[in-house]
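Record 1 of the preview.
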Amino acid sequence: MVAAAVDALPATFRERLSNLEFGVEEWAHPEDYARTGTAPGGVLLGVYRGIPLPKRHAGYNMALPDRIVVFQGPLQRMAQDADDLAERVRHVVRHEIAHHFGISDERLREIDAY
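->
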């Protein structure tokens, strides 16, 4: 589902994904809650672990790939069926890709992307 969500992105976005890999983990780690400012016990569906494109400078070379992780456990608990799960995964992938491009949660709310 994650691969399908990435493949469904417009080519102009897919072509700009740089030094980025995607993964699926069962649940978020404590560091993910701290990184995102999510309260312990809160629901975290995905996370971007890396340096957004606008913040990469000349010293950003030979770096390990940034990583977008989708958390399977909470998404499966929320989903009503397979189609709903796929839509939720698509939304999380796009949300985290926005962070890769340097778009904050506040800006995503401003443009009604939630």
